[in-house]
Write a structure and sequence with these properties.
By secondary structure, this protein is of the alpha/beta class. It contains 14 helices and 20 strands. Strands 7, 8, 9, 10, 11, 14, 15, 16 and 18 form a nine-stranded mixed beta sheet that branches. Strand 19 and strand 20 form a beta hairpin. The radius of gyration is 26 Å and the shape is elongated. The mean pLDDT is about 95. The protein binds ligand BES, manganese (II) ion and zinc ion. Zinc ion binds next to strand 10. Manganese (II) ion binds next to loops.
Length: about 475
C-alpha cells in the first residue's frame, strides 16, 4: 500500500474516492464542508433528503458530485461532535472503507484526519488509518482451493493534513517580527495546549535587553520577543528552544555587499525551525514540557542604527563592544538565552543562521552542533542521523574564546575570521553558564541557493526526532 499526505482541498484532488464525515445535527467535517461548498450545497441537500446520515458508521457513496474532482464521495456518519474519539474514528473509517470495497476505487483520500479526534494525536490518526486499511484489505485465503474472491483494488491512500505555514520563504516586507509573532499566536489558537506571549520593545527595555535592542535600533519595524509554552508533562523541567528571528539582515552599518543579500530574508529560519518544532510537538501531543523563545528583529542601517564601537549592556549584566553590526544574531540570542533561564530548563538548544563561516566549513549538508555537554551533542547528532537531517560536531573552548577580548567592554561581538563559527558559539557560551546547552548553526542547511532557492525546513526533523527520543517514543 502506498500512503501519502496532502494539503490540497478535498474537492480539488482527482482521486477515485474521497472520504468525508457528517456529525450529529448536520455539522460537517472540514473535508465535508469543502465538498459541500464546491458542490453548491449538495451534501446539505442529501442530508435533508435523508440520503446521508450522521449516525456513527452509516456511510453513503455519492457519485458525480458536481464541482468535485473525485469520482466518488463517501459520506460517513461520525455521531456526536463532542464524542468523536479514536474509537469512533476507527468505526467511521472502517465503515467508509467497507462501503467502497465493492467499487473500483484504487486511490482514496481520507479527510477524517483533519478532525479534532479526542485523545488522539496525528501520529495515532496515521496509524489508525493504516490499521483500518490493513483490516479492510485482509482476506484469509490460504485454505481455499479454486477461484479466490477478488481483492479490494485499493493501491494508494491519502491522508489530508492542514495547510502548512511557510514563513521561511516569505519576503521580509511580509514576514516582519510582528508577522512571526502572529504566526506563533495562531498556532496557540489552533492548539489548546500551547500558549504564546509576545513581549514589546518597552517590556524588553525594562528587562534590560539592550544587546537585543541595539540590533533593532535602525529600523522602524518593532522588535518582538515571542515566548511559547507547551505543557505535555506537568511537574517536569522543560526543554527550551531558542531561534534566531532576524527577518532581514542587511548587516546594519557594517553593510553586506549586494550580491545575494536577498537571501538574508532567510535569516529567521532558526525562528521558523523552533516554531515548526513546537507545531510538530503539539500535533503529536508529546509527553514533554517545551518552551520556545524567539527574539525577532530586523537589522537595518539608518541614522538611528547602532555604530561599530558602540557598547551595550546585555540582560546578563555583561557589556559588549559591537565591533561589527553584522554579527547581530549573537546579540539577540544572548539576551534571549538569559531570559530563558527563568524556565529552569532541563536542556536548552539555540538554533541560528549564525555565521557564513559555517557554510565554508560544512557546506550545505550538515548543521554545526556545538556543546560542552557530550551526551547532549551525541543525542542531537544521532537524532539527525535517524531523521536524515544531519549535524556535525564542532568544538567550543577557551582557545577560541580569547578572540573575543575587548579593550573597552567585557567582550567584543566578533573575533577574527579564523574559526568564525566557533567564536560565535563561544560568545553564546558566556550567557549559558551552568545550563545543559547546545548551539546549532544552520547557516548552510536552512535554505538552498541558486535555481533551487528556498527554505528547507531544517532542522525541524532533527529537533523533533531528538524530542521524540527523549520521550522514549522511538523504536
Ligand atoms: N546571517 C548572517 C550569517 C550568514 C551569512 C548565514 C551568509 C548564511 C549565509 C550573520 O548575521 C552574519 O552576518 N554573520 C557574519 C559574522 C561576522 C561579521 C563575524 C558573517 O558570517 O559574515
Ligand atoms: Mn549579520
Ligand atoms: Zn544574521
Amino acid at each position: 500500500m502506498n500512503y501519502f499526505t496532502t494539503t490540497s482541498a478535498a474537492s480539488r484532488r482527482a482521486v477515485d474516492c474521497v472520504i468525508v464525515g457528517i456529525y450529529d445535527r448536520g455539522r460537517m467535517s472540514s473535508g465535508a464542508a469543502d465538498i459541500d461548498t464546491a458542490s453548491k450545497g449538495s451534501l446539505k441537500k442529501h442530508l435533508k433528503n435523508g440520503d446521508i446520515s450522521a449516525q456513527l458508521g452509516r456511510c453513503t457513496v455519492l457519485t458525480d458530485v458536481a464541482g468535485v474532482k473525485a469520482a466518488r464521495v463517501a459520506a460517513v456518519g461520525l455521531g456526536k461532535y463532542s464524542e468523536f474519539s479514536s474509537v469512533n474514528y476507527r468505526r467511521a473509517l472502517d465503515a467508509a472503507l467497507q462501503s467502497i470495497s465493492g467499487s473500483k476505487s484504487r486511490q482514496v483520500l481520507n479527510t477524517l484526519t483533519l478532525e479534532d479526534v479526542k485523545g488522539a494525536s496525528s501520529y495515532y490518526l496515521a496509524r489508525f488509518t493504516a490499521q483500518a486499511v490493513g483490516d479492510a484489505m485482509y482476506q484469509f485465503t490460504a485454505m481455499k482451493s479454486g477461484r479466490k474472491a477478488a481483492q479490494m483494488p485499493l493501491k494508494k491512500v491519502g491522508m489530508a493534513i492542514a495547510k502548512r505555514g511557510d514563513v521561511g520563504n516569505l519576503p521580509a516586507n511580509v514576514c516582519t517580527p510582528s508577522y512571526l509573532a502572529r504566526t506563533a499566536q495562531k498556532l496557540s489558537r489552533e492548539h489548546s495546549n500551547v500558549t504564546t506571549r509576545v513581549l514589546s520593545e518597552a517590556e524588553m527595555k525594562r528587562l534590560g535587553m539592550h544587546s537585543l535592542l541595539s540590533v533593532t535600533a535602525g529600523t522602524t519595524e518593532p522588535a518582538k520577543l515571542i515566548v511559547m509554552q507547551y505543557k505535555g508533562k506537568p511537574g517536569t523541567k522543560p526543554v527550551v528552544l531558542v531561534g534566531k528571528g532576524v527577518t532581514f539582515d542587511t548587516g546594519g552599518i557594517s553593510l553586506k555587499p549586494p550580491p545575494t543579500m536577498d537571501e538574508m530574508k532567510f535569516d529567521m529560519c532558526g525562528a521558523a525551525g523552533v516554531i515548526g518544532t513546537m507545531a510538530a510537538v503539539a500535533k503529536l501531543k508529546l509527553p514533554i514540557n517545551l518552551n520556545v523563545v524567539v527574539p525577532a528583529v530586523e537589522n537595518l542601517p539608518s541614522g538611528t542604527a547602532t555604530r561599530p564601537g558602540d557598547i551595550v549592556k546585555s540582560m546578563s549584566g555583561q557589556t559588549i563592544e559591537i565591533l561589527n553590526t553584522d554579527a547581530e544574531g549573537r546579540l539577540i540570542l544572548c539576551d534571549a538565552l538569559t531570559y530563558s533561564k527563568r524556565f529552569k530548563p532541563d536542556t536548552i538548544i539555540d538554533v541560528a543562521t549564525l555565521t557564513g563561516a559555517c557554510v565554508i566549513a560544512l557546506g550545505h549538508h550538515r548543521t554545526a552542533v556545538m556543546s560542552k555537554h557530550d551526551k547532549l551533542s551525541a543525542d542531537i547528532i544521532s537524532a539527525g542521523i535517524s531523521a536524515e537531517d544531519r549535524g556535525w560536531p564542532m568544538p567550543l573552548g577557551d582557545e577560541w574564546a580569547v578572540e573575543l577580548k575587548s579593550n573597552f567592554a567585557d567582550m567584543a561581538n566578533v573575533g577574527g575570521r579564523p574559526g568564525g563559527t566557533i567564536t560565535a558559539g563561544c560568545f553564546l557560551s558566556k550567557f549559558t553558564e551552568g545550563l545543559n546547552w547546545a548551539h546549532l548553526d544552520i547557516a548552510g542547511t536552512a535554505w538552498k541557493s541558486g535555481k533551487l532557492k528556498g527554505a528547507t525546513g531544517r532542522p525541524v526533523p532533527m529537533l523533533t526526532e531528538y524530542l521524540l527520543g527523549r520521550c522514549g517514543a522511538l523504536p
